[in-house]
Write a sequence for this structure.
């Protein structure tokens, strides 16, 4: 009899244990709320976005493009229309709205290449960068000033005034050379070239002076 | 008796397990700031919603201006009735409290900096934390005799048609090139005048 009673109490105890476990499992239902908490912490994201590390200057980008560095991918986050009218050489178009579409993931989330995002200025590119950074994508850069800055510095560089330091003139010279690389033709560029074409080594006329024959001296 | 011991052991293990779970739950620290929306939804919202305001719209009494520049610049000059919250400190307890209060009282927080890019990052982070009562002021600041001057600007405006510029430059260069070609002087002909040989003095008597 005693044994039976103990067994009954014990059976009841199991039920209580089971009930507690079910209650705790019920707590899991509340967890999906935190699924939205994907990516890195907001504090970390803030400190990443505040640092200007992600910016790349147009001069640096021009250098990369001219040297045809294969470790960089350019991504244009503007819409298709602006992309069609002008974009940087070899850029890929991923409009901001389609940033997380299926196809673009392979460009953004990888470790092989450095990705340079750009737009007309760096507003949309920054937004794309922040969202990618939250997801922990590495090797992302933003072109500082975007296409507008690209135009102002590389495509149409401003000629420095006469009283500006030598470094400015050097910078202007390299930028001008870069702009020629990207298709701009300067009138003086042709001028420089023209004499080069004409300059055929002038034929030297070597007149061999014949030794004068000793004049026959009249004499008897 | 043997069975009883077995059940005892099981129940001890079970209570220990539950204890561990309870301790885990009690010590679990809730992160201070939690994202309210994931990146995909954020992207959808920022590409569809208009979150820009202009200087003219600031008269709205529901709007509260927030200056995200540093204290020095804020003191140098700021818009009327603006609060200074420096961008890197935007997630501190006090500042989050400010934003929570604004949200509860249904007021719009208008972020601004020296250009529209500056408040972009704080805006986007707060937006992801669930503060949807935030807008950006699209202005550009400059100083004239230590007085702050703000002007409306348009974000992401294309300033120049680069393709047209390149084509134009090519055209111009070609035009000058053809002119140049005409100018090119033909190489001088070298005419060597053969001198008549002097008649040799013939020896003779």
């Amino acid at each position: 009899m005693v044994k039976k009673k103990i067994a009954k109490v014990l059976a009841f105890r199991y039920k209580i244990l089971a009930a507690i476990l079910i209650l705790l499992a019920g707590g899991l239902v509340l967890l999906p709320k935190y699924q939205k908490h994907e990516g890195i912490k907001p504090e970390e994201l803030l400190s990443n976005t505040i640092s200007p590390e992600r910016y790349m200057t147009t001069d640096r980008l021009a250098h990369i493009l001219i040297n045809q560095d294969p470790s960089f991918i350019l991504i244009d986050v503007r819409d298709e229309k602006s992309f069609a009218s002008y974009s940087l050489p070899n850029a890929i178009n991923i409009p901001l709205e389609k940033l997380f579409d299926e196809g673009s993931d392979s460009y953004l989330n990888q470790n092989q290449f450095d990705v340079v995002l750009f737009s007309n200025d760096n507003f949309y590119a920054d937004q794309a960068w922040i969202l990618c950074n939250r997801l922990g994508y590495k090797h992302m850069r933003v072109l500082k000033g975007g296409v507008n800055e690209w135009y102002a510095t590389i495509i149409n560089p401003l000629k420095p005034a006469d009283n500006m330091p030598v470094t400015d003139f050097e910078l202007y010279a390299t930028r001008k050379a870069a702009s020629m690389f990207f298709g701009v033709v300067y009138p003086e560029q042709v001028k420089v070239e023209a004499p080069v074409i004409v300059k055929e080594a002038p034929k030297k006329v070597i007149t061999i002076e014949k030794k004068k024959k000793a004049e026959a001296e009249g004499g008897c | 008796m043997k069975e009883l011991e077995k059940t005892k052991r099981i129940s001890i293990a079970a209570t220990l397990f539950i204890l561990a779970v309870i301790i885990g739950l009690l010590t679990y620290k809730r992160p201070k700031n939690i994202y309210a929306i994931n990146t995909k939804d954020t992207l959808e919202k920022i590409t569809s919603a208009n979150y820009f305001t202009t200087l003219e719209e600031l008269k709205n009494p529901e709007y509260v201006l927030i200056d995200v520049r540093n204290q020095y610049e804020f003191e140098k000059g700021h818009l009327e009735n603006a609060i200074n919250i420096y961008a890197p400190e935007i997630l501190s307890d006090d500042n989050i409290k400010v934003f929570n209060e604004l949200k509860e009282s249904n007021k719009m927080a208008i972020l601004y900096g020296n250009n529209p890019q500056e408040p972009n990052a704080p805006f986007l982070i707060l937006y992801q934390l669930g503060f949807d009562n935030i807008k950006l002021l699209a202005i550009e600041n400059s100083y004239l005799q230590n007085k702050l001057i703000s002007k409306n600007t348009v974000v992401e405006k294309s300033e120049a048609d680069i393709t047209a510029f390149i084509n134009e430059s090519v055209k111009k260069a070609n035009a000058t090139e053809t002119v140049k070609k005409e100018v090119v002087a033909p190489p001088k002909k070298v005419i060597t005048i053969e001198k008549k040989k002097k008649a040799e003095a013939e020896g003779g008597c």
Q: What stands out?
A: Chain A has a mean pLDDT of 83. Residues 2-27 of chain A form the longest helix (26 residues). The first strand of chain A starts at residue 55 and ends at 56.
